[in-house]
Known about the structure:
alpha/beta; Rossmann fold; 9-stranded mixed sheet; 11 strands; 36% helix; 24% strand; globular; GMP synthase; Class_I_gatase-like; GATASE; ChyE-like
Amino acid sequence: xxxxxLQCDDLAPSLRQTYGNYPExxxxxxxxxxxxxxxxxxxxxxxxLPEDLLAADVxxxxxxxxxxxxxxxxxxxxxxxxxxxxxxxxxxxxICFGHQLICKALGGVVERSxxxxxxxxxxxxxxxxxxxxxxxxxxxxxxxSHQDQVIELPPVGEVIAESAFCPNYVxxxxxxxxxxxxxxxxxxxxxxxxxxxxxxVLCPIRLREGVASLEAQTDDALMARWMVDFYYxxxxxxxxxxxxxxx
Length: 247
């Protein structure tokens, strides 16, 4: 499986020295579930986009410090590319910013949350079961780092996992796209160091809660398995659709 990473940011230099940048983080995560996976990177935040929707088997949008409602040309271009992927039924997963950008591209609403920062480990209830979710469990804990949230889903979106803090935490879009608010590629150690970098701009109480939550175990390995299985399921659905159309 060839995964096209649409990279929308770089981690801070001090974090990259210890943990690697987004391509290394996603490669470690996804290869834990699919050892034969390969990743090709397009640095979208620097104006680089694929010229061919078939340049990869499946696609992945990274997180970013940017907000999807900001007026950067590269964000508008990425929205257009996501719409092309949708029309062509090319499988796509979005992480954090990527999750929010999928929502925006398909007609939903993303805003700065009045609840403040999501930090540390988030605890979510899985409310829908899909064939690609194996092994199945009803709870999902992942590292988070976000201020924006998906506020209103487009009609094609369906909530898969939710919490009181983030009601649209994992969203599936008609077996083609998947949005995940959490960061399965982030370890708890990376999360702790990221919060240290931002402690001057974070609410002290929220920061303390976020650091304390890092004592909990996370489900990043499970999420990696679900992501890979979603890709395979979405590819199979797209191929079945193509066969029906050509019959």
